[in-house]
């Protein structure tokens, strides 16, 4: 029986804008997305039949409702594969945080089974398949830095923004992405972020000018439900962040720091207040096979 090991990075959004709502209920978005150095480890091992999910996080479902299991089922059904697969997930990315933890696991399963079963699918084809699983899955296939449009499936890779230091805080509750989007009044969005300007400033290292151009239109919706997010942003500001923002539908919040040493110092201080604090940096890749094959 074959096996393969993958690294599945989480993501943040530098900007998140919603430009409309489609008749099918999905929202049209423009997002500047970024992979970060906080990842889950995935091991895929062939078995005789079925799909098994094992993991180390109490909040993570271990049945076929898990997005990773849905990805495996999708591959089996699309290509008529009867072999089974065991999916072992060592989770480091917080669950229901806006960091694409479930989506990156699904992307890893798509990429891993493509290699394990010799399907020969391109990244673009894997991303196309991933669209059926979730809006963030296509980006997680590509990773790095990218603009996402449509419902998130139209990915434009950009020169990666590597090595930017971040402090990430996940409060002790999760958020339903569907609930946040349902509560968003698209026609009442007060300010739309400029992802192109934000990208240029980030690439130039001009972090202090980012406040005028970064933005997440879901932030006010989630803050109305969970005002603790505003407190976290204030704590990161006080700790020296150049700019702070909630990622995705939340509730995780990140602060951008000019130097890794400053970020590490801030993270150590904030750990006395919050239990889930991560000092991470931006990275240039999405899901990666670390043992047993290649993408």
Could you characterize the architecture of this molecule?
The protein folds into 2 domains: 3-159, Ribosomal Protein S5, domain 2, CATH 3.30.230.10; 165-281, 2-Layer Sandwich (Alpha-Beta Plaits), CATH 3.30.70. 30% of the residues lie in helices and 29% in strands. The chain is globular. Strands 1, 2, 3, 4, 5, 6, 8 and 12 form an 8-stranded mixed sheet that branches. The chain has 295 residues and is an alpha+beta fold. It has 9 helices and 12 strands. The chain has helices spanning 67-79, 101-116, 123-130, 137-142, 177-183, 195-204, 219-225, 228-238, 260-270, and strands at 3-21, 27-47, 51-55, 84-90, 145-149, 154-158, 165-169, 215-216, 243-246, 253-257, 277-281, 288-291. Helix 1 (67-79) packs parallel to helix 2 (101-116) and helix 2 packs across helix 3.
Search tags:
2 domains, single chain, 295 residues, 30% helix, Alpha-Beta Plaits, Ribosomal Protein S5, domain 2, 4-stranded antiparallel beta sheet, 8-stranded mixed beta sheet
List the helices and strands and how they pair.
Elements (H helix, E strand, L loop, with lengths): L2 E19 L5 E21 L3 E5 L11 H13 L4 E7 L10 H16 L6 H8 L6 H6 L2 E5 L4 E5 L6 E5 L7 H7 L11 H10 L10 E2 L2 H7 L2 H11 L4 E4 L6 E5 L2 H11 L6 E5 L6 E4 L4
Parallel strand pairs: 1-8, 3-4
Antiparallel strand pairs: 1-2, 1-12, 2-4, 2-5, 5-6, 7-10, 7-11, 9-10
Helix pairs in contact: 1-2, 2-3
């Amino acid at each position: 029986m074959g096996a393969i090991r993958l690294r599945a990075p989480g993501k943040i959004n530098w900007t998140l804008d919603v430009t409309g709502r489609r008749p099918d209920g999905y929202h049209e978005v423009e997002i500047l997305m970024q992979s970060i150095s906080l990842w889950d480890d995935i091991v895929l091992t062939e078995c005789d039949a079925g799909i098994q999910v094992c993991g180390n996080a109490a909040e993570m479902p271990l049945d076929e409702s898990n997005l990773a299991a849905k990805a495996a089922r999708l591959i089996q059904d699309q290509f008529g594969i009867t072999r089974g697969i065991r999916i072992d997930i060592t989770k480091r990315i917080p669950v229901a945080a806006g960091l694409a933890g479930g989506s990156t696991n699904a992307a890893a399963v798509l990429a891993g089974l493509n290699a394990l079963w010799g399907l020969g699918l391109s990244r673009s084809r894997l991303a196309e398949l991933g669209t059926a699983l979730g809006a963030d899955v296509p980006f997680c296939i590509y990773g790095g830095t990218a603009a996402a449009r449509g419902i998130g499936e139209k990915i434009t890779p950009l020169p990666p923004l590597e090595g930017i230091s971040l402090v990430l805080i996940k409060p002790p509750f999760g958020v339903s992405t569907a609930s946040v989007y349902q509560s968003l009044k698209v026609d009442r969005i007060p300010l739309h972020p400029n992802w192109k300007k934000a990208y240029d400033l980030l690439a130039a290292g001009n972090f202090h000018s980012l406040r005028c151009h970064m933005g997440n239109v879901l932030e006010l919706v989630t803050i109305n439900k969970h005002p603790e997010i505003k407190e976290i942003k204030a704590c990161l500001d006080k700790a020296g962040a150049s700019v702070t923002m909630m990622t995705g539908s939340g509730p995780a919040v990140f602060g951008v720091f000019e130097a890794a040493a400053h970020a590490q110092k801030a993270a150590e201080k904030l750990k006395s207040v919050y239990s889930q604090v991560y000092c991470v940096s931006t990275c240039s890749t999405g899901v990666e096979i670390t043992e047993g094959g290649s993408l």
